[in-house]
Each structure stands twice: as C-alpha cells, then as structure tokens.
Design brief:
Elements lengths: L1 H13 L9 H37 L5 E3 L3 E3 L4 H21 L7 H19 L9 H23 L1 H7 L2 H4 L4 H41 L7 H4 L27 H25 L14 H14 L5 H30 L5 H28 L6 H20 L11 H30 L5 H8 L10 H12 L2 H7 L1 H12 L3 H10 L3 H6 L7 H22 L1
C-alpha cells in the first residue's frame, strides 16, 4: 500500500497540473503570510497612513477644502479615498498583465517574494512623510504601495485553490459528492483561518502601536501654546494632558510614534513572511506554451478569460457581486476611520483602540460562523453566511442615518462609534473568508492567478467606486451621514446578485472550461512529443473528472 502511494506521489511530483500533495506545514506557511501582510490592511493603512495623510491634508486646506490633483474640490478626509480610487484605476492594467503570470512556469512563489519585499520597502518610506514634505507626495506613495500590496495578494490568494485541490483527502476521494463536500469544508477552513490570522496579526500589531504611542507621546513636548497663536478658534486639540489647540505642522505629538510604527509595520510583514517563503511550495498550474513570452501570454490569457465569461457565467456573476458588496464594505471601513479622526476628534491612541475592537470582533465573528458552518452545513453554507452578514452590513448605514445617533453635541458619540466598529468587524472577516473560499472553488483549474487578479480589484481595502461616490455625495448634501447612507445601495445590489449564484453549477462550469490557449497547444506539431503528451494527459484527467461527476 505504501509502495503504491509512494509511486503515485512520485508521479504527482512531476505532474505540472497536480503537483505535490498539500502538507500541513505548507498550510501553516500560507496562514502566516496573512498574519504578516494583513497588518497593512487592518492597521497600517486605516490607523497610521489614513491618520497621517488626513491630518497633513487638513493642515493645508483652504476654507476647509483641498484640490485633489489640482482641480477636484474635496474635503481633507476625502484625500485618502480619492488616492485609493486613483490607485485602482492605475492598477487595473497592471493586474491584467501580472494576474495570469502566477499560473504558468515557476513564477508564483518568486513573485510573491518580490512583491512582498517591494511593499515593505514602500511602507518604510512613509517614515520620511512629515512636514514640510507636501501631503500629495504621501498620496503618491500610498498609490504605489497599494499597487504592490494588491499584486502580492494576487500571488498569495492564487495558492488557495491548489492547496485545497491537492489536500490528500480531497485528491484521493473518488466519490464526486463527497469530494465537493470535502472541498467546501477544507476550503472554508483554510480561507477563514487565514482571514482570522490576518485580523489577529492586525490586532497584536495595533496593541504594539498603542504601547509605542504611549511611550513616545506621554506628554506634550513642544508646547502647544507656541504652536497655535489663536487657541480660542483652533479646531485642533492636543490629545495630551494640556487639552489646548495646536498645529500639527510643528507639534510632533503623534507623528514620531506614527513614523516608528510604520517602520515596525514593514519589519513585521517581512519578518513573519520568511516562514511563508520557506514553507510554501512553488506550485505550477501549467507550463508556458512554446514560443510564448510570459507577459504577452498573461495579457492574452486575461483577454481570453474576459471573452469566455459566457462559458463561466456563475463565476462571472459571483465576481461582479463580490466587487459591488466589498466596495461598499471597504468604503465603510475607511469612512469609519477618517470620520473618527477628522470629525469626532479621536486621538491616534483612541483610533488604535477603535481598530483593535474591529480586529478582535472580526476574529470572534469569523470563528462563530466557521463553527456554525461545521455544525449545521446545510443551513450555514458559504453563500448563506455571506448573505447573512451582508444583511447586517446593510443595516449599519441606516443606523448612522437614523435620528438621534452619533449626536455630535452629546457625550456618548464615541461610545456609539465603538459599537459600530464592533458591529462592522463581526461580519467583515466572515464575508472575506467565505467569499474567498467560494471563488477558489469556482476558479477553473490552471487559471487560479488570473481569477484572483479579478478578485483583488476590490479585495481588502481596495475600492474603485465607493471612495469616489461617498465624499461627492457628502459634499453635495453638506452632511457626511448622507455619504455613508448611499453606500447601502452597494450592499443591496451585491446581495441581490449573490442570490442568483449557484455554486454547484459554477463548479461544474469550471471543470468543463477549456481555455483557448489549451486548444491552440493541442494543435502543436507531433514532433514536440513532451508538450503533446502533457496535453493528452490534461485532457484525459479532465475527462475522467467529468465522468466521475456525471456518475
């Protein structure tokens, strides 16, 4: 028995489609990367960068407004959302070029390492973003950082379908019904634990940030009375003991703590990622076609996938639904952080505590739904869990808009904001984790990286529409609450689209899908014996899989 298993495993090691069996150590390595890199998404960006750039933009605002790109009138708290929207526009062609690179040759793991190091380097450059450096330079750095982080996430997420597919219990299972059941269970567990690892890493890093702030900024060191001549009319308040007005261009209360924490953020990501780089195997979906260049092949493959949407209607519908509802979710998260700093006058330390609440409630919510999905799989399946949490999210803007909530003149508005942050976090991680698990099952074999490049357009805190629409509505209405209220439309539309997604049908469509480049490779002259044999093996494997499903 062991001999047979060893022989099969040896064959699988040489098979460019299947690859080696998934080991637990490799899964740990994949989880650790989420623990390391998610500090950018759940702490560095919303806690450090948003606060830093929003404060810098606010300092140079004329009449309470700035001009993004020199001609777009906006409020200072809209600067970071506009930067993120611009980064999405720029990164779209980049994702198209690099998305499918992960699916050919041995580039998946190498590019994960390269983009991770580049992201850490860019994060560390924020150390130098301080007055008199212009705030727009920090915005340009944020755009570049958001692009490299997005590319790293594409290569990282593209490992998920391969880890699930090559999980020993799944790959050795011949019963198609049990195989589907195991795939959903294992995929949800790996994806959701990874999301939890990310939030846990974010929470631990935030606690470290708060400790550093308390150590470095324990008292007012520069003399607020010297910073702002007109203290009576100042809209800025020293978050330290003196409680008087100050000008952050010369007062270093929070900036030095932010700069040190930004350096620590890059070291945190790079240090923990070393375990991922050592334990994660370089899994290859299929070889590069003869005579094709890696970049042109990637662009052609992405173009072909876009053309073949009609062959994968379920996966296409799910991606559109995901784009819409995550755009709304991400916009709410950024709005929560910016509003707490610019309008509710949260100090950096209070903003850190707020973000810790979000992270911890996210871990609690994700574990809760992971338990329910295991205990009652027929009721709490992946799609149902996402829809339940979307319904909870849709109620959040209604609460913000309701009369009597977030009373700016009352004494409890900060407590209300902490409540909203826990509400947000409880559902956010579950939506991210279970959505990623669904897409990993809908992605056609050999196109994992390409599909997750589409996924990455709105993954984590990258949103193209919400950050553009919400501040515009708030500016026109003269009330930030109306901008938040509009975001409920994204959640409702995404919910309705998700209703139409049939996961079982989508899995079958993925199995039956044959990319155009594979058809072209099948016409390669017979003198290329190795390529022809490889293609015959791929088609035979696909035919066997389809027959098993039909039986």
């Amino acid at each position: 028995m062991s001999h047979g298993h060893g022989h099969d495993n040896g064959k699988e090691e040489d098979d460019p489609e299947l690859g080696p069996l998934t080991e637990q150590k490799e899964i740990y390595g994949w989880w650790i990367f989420d623990f390391a890199s998610s500090t950018f998404v759940y702490s560095v960006l919303p806690f450090l960068i948003v606060g830093l750039l929003t404060s810098m933009a606010d300092e140079v605002a004329e009449g309470g407004h700035i001009y993004f790109l020199g001609f777009i009138k906006a409020e200072p708290e809209s600067f970071v959302p506009y930067c993120i929207t611009l980064s999405v526009i720029i990164q779209t062609p980049i994702f198209v070029c690099v998305g499918a690179v992960a699916d050919v040759g041995g580039y998946r793991r190498k590019l994960l390492i390269i983009t991770s190091i580049a992201s850490c380097a860019l994060i560390s450059l924020f150390f130098f973003i301080i007055y008199p450096v212009p705030y727009w330079l920090g915005g340009a750095l944020l755009i570049a950082c958001n692009i490299t982080v997005g590319c790293a996430s594409i290569f990282y997420n593209s490992f998920l379908p391969l880890l699930v597919k090559n999980y020993p219990k799944i790959r050795n299972e011949k019963d198609p019904v049990k195989k589907k059941e195991y795939s959903e269970r294992v995929g949800n567990r790996i994806s959701s634990v990874g999301i939890n690892a990310g939030f846990a890493g974010g929470a631990l890093f935030l606690i470290l940030n708060i400790v550093i702030f308390l150590i470095m900024n324990g008292q007012c060191t520069t003399g607020c009375h010297a910073c702002t001549p007109d203290l009576e009319r100042s809209e800025h308040f020293c978050p330290k003991s003196c409680g008087t007005g100050y000008d952050t261009r010369t007062c270093d209360h929070d900036y030095w703590g932010s700069r040190v924490n930004l350096i620590l953020g890059s070291l945190w990501w790079l240090g923990f990622s070393l375990f991922t780089f050592a334990w994660l195997k370089n899994r290859v979906s299929h070889p590069l076609p003869p005579g094709d260049h890696i970049l042109t092949h990637s662009a052609k493959k992405m173009y072909q996938l876009a053309k073949d949407c009609r062959k994968l209607p379920t996966a296409t519908r799910f991606i559109f639904a995901y784009w819409i509802y995550t755009d709304g979710m991400n916009t709410l998260f950024l709005a929560c952080m910016e509003y707490s700093i610019s309008r509710l006058k949260f100090s950096f330390t209070e903003s850190g505590v707020l973000t810790v609440f979000i992270n911890l409630s996210a871990v609690a919510g994700n574990f809760t739904f992971l338990f329910l999905s295991k205990k009652y799989p027929t009721i709490f399946h992946s799609k149902a869990i996402v829809m339940i949490n979307l319904a909870m999210f849709a109620c959040m803007p209604l609460f913000v808009r309701a009369p009597g909530t977030l009373d700016m003149t009352g004494s409890t508005y900060k407590g209300q904001w902490y409540f909203i942050s826990c509400w947000y976090g409880f559902g956010f991680a579950s939506i991210q984790g279970f959505s990623r698990g669904i897409l990993s099952r809908l992605a056609p074999p050999g196109s994992e990286g390409a599909f997750f490049s589409f996924f990455e357009f709105t993954n984590k805190l990258t949103s193209p529409l919400g950050p553009l629409i919400m501040p515009s509505v708030a500016l026109m209405a003269g009330d930030w609450k109306w901008g938040v209220f509009v975001i409920v439309t994204f959640l409702i539309v995404g919910f309705l689209l998700l209703l139409t997604v049939d996961e079982s049908k989508g899995i079958q469509e993925a199995i039956n899908y044959v990319p155009q480049h594979n058809l072209e490779m099948s016409l390669v002259p017979t003198h290329d014996a190795e390529s022809s044999h490889m293609m015959r093996h791929e088609y035979e494997s696909e035919d066997e899989d389809i027959n098993l499903r039909s039986h």
